[in-house]
Write a structure and sequence with these properties.
single chain; 2 helices; alpha+beta; 88 residues
């Protein structure tokens, strides 16, 4: 997901590398286990980056979500690789 211009200054300069590391650690699969609140998966979301999303068939784009919604907090515990559906 693109960073909104008004929030750009809230992200660290090395955000691309931090985000990439989170996605690599998740092995390019959505790591949401229900944090999204959608109720569409019983355990870990099955969506994988670049593949068809379950249920919709749209192409999955893996993003990096801040669980506390604070872009300044890039602690490992706060970051989760999520498909665009779970992140939204």
């Amino acid at each position: 997901m693109p960073i909104r211009p008004e929030n750009k200054d809230r992200y660290p300069a090395d955000w691309p590398a931090i985000s990439l590391a989170a996605k690599q650690a998740a092995q390019w699969r959505c790591a949401c286990t229900g944090q999204c609140g959608r109720g569409t998966h019983q355990s870990r979301c099955p969506n994988r980056h670049g593949q068809a999303a379950y249920g919709t068939g749209t192409k999955v784009v893996l993003t990096t979500a801040h669980l506390n919604h604070q872009p300044e907090d890039v602690s490992e515990a706060n970051l989760v690789a999520m498909c665009q559906g779970c992140h939204l």
